[in-house]
Amino acid sequence: MPAKRGPRIIDGKKTSGIILEELKAEVAALRTKGVQPGLAVVLVGEDPASQVYVRSKRKTCADLGIASFSHDLPANATEKRLLALIAKLNADPKVHGILVQVPLPKHMDEQRVLNAISPDKDVDGFHPVNVGRLLNGEEAFVSCTPAGCQELLTRWGYDPAGKHVVIVGRSNIVGKPLAALLMQKAKGANATVTVCHSRTKNLAALTRQADILVAAIGVPEFVTARMVREGAVVIDVGVNRIPDATKKSGARLVGDVAFAGVAKKARAITPVPGGVGPMTIAMLMRNTVLAAKRAGK
């Protein structure tokens, strides 16, 4: 018997590169009309992971020709000061998108801060108005990671229409908005969606029903081979750092899927790193360009 071929690797880095090239052309066209998309990125404190994310976002803006407005506040800045900055950015016509990097310091109410961003500049898609519009099937800024998952599925030929999508995780950042996005009566959606979480009984029995399985529970290598149906498409949203003495840094990145075992059963799978992660920044840039177009109208 011939050896079983490995799964198709859904390359998020390659896909995000294609999207960013498309956006670069859109930005150039907008600039000929006197409109330069602008993104304000607000960082509070010195969380190392947040600093890495913010640097990457600012570099991508520069590469695309998007104006980047940097606002770095100390960790002890008051919530009042942050809200005043957001109000100023809401009123600035040069700023089309506002991103406040989370997590915020513990003395700040994260939801109150995110709610202060104008829904028309909420390129992260976290404002209740955009969440509600998404659920209603109206035009909205969609959270970047769920939008990236959908884009990977459609661009790699795995249309969710008519498929059973099982999402493991119910966060406001990924699980809930992805479920709302994929159940819509719209292109790239029309799926039957089941959302599972830490309190779900007989979890493996449900995940084995999935045509498309999305892992977004935030637990390293949580989804194992026995939880996956033969021939399923697996999207791994997780990014977890685990100890590894063989690495110079003493750690390595893994997803929420036990890749080696699951890959033997999956039809297609996203790697970590290099899967969903790069798509999140690409979708942020897409939302920023969309915000500039809407403002131009």
* Second-tier CATH architecture of the largest domain: 3-Layer(aba) Sandwich
Total E-strand runs:
11
Question: Considering DSSP H and I runs of 4 or more, what fraction of the residues is helical?
Answer: 25-40%
CATH topology of the largest domain, by name, is Rossmann fold
Number of helices: 10
Give the C-alpha Rg.
Answer: 20 Å
Report on this model:
Helices cover 40% and strands 16% of the residues. By secondary structure, it is α/β, with parallel strands linked by helices. It has two domains: 34-119, 3-Layer(aba) Sandwich (Rossmann fold); 144-277, 3-Layer(aba) Sandwich (Rossmann fold), CATH 3.40.50.720.
List the helices and strands and how they pair.
Blueprint: E1 8-9, H1 12-32, E2 38-44, H2 48-64, E3 67-73, H3 79-91, E4 97-100, H4 110-116, H5 128-136, H6 144-155, E5 164-168, H7 175-182, E6 192-196, H8 203-207, E7 212-215, E8 233-236, E9 240-243, E10 251-254, H9 259-263, E11 268-269, H10 276-296
Parallel strand pairs: 1-11, 2-3, 2-4, 5-6, 5-7, 7-8, 8-11
Antiparallel strand pairs: 9-10
Helix pairs in contact: 1-10, 6-7, 6-10
Q: Summary?
A:
The protein is 40% helix and 16% strand. The protein has 297 residues and is of the alpha/beta class. The chain has 2 domains: 34-119, Rossmann fold, CATH 3.40.50; 144-277, NAD(P)-binding Rossmann-like Domain (Rossmann fold, 3-Layer(aba) Sandwich), CATH 3.40.50.720.
